Please model this.
Amino acid sequence: MVDLMNLPSEFYNKTSLAGSTEEALQAEAARRLAALAEGHTDIVDASVSIEELTGGETPHRYQVRVVLYARPNQIVAVEKHEDAMGALKQALSAVERQVRDKREKLREQWRQP
Model:
């Protein structure tokens, strides 16, 4: 069983965000991933990476990649948004949706021909 207090075990902040903003991002990721893993043994680990996309075409845009190391397959979501928290929340919502779908399919294997 995964240690819920250490989820995600990898948190990469490749932006200029620091201090309380970075702590808020880490706390949001930890809270939602721990809730997703609670009571289940399929999630082994998680990684969150936040990058600031820079350039003339993408000013003030962030990209978040969430990877869940789960059984039997890894789950990945990548989202972009104008602020880091928005990108993180969208990526976490996408991962949660994929995990729910995966768990539902595994639960209903007996219905498949």
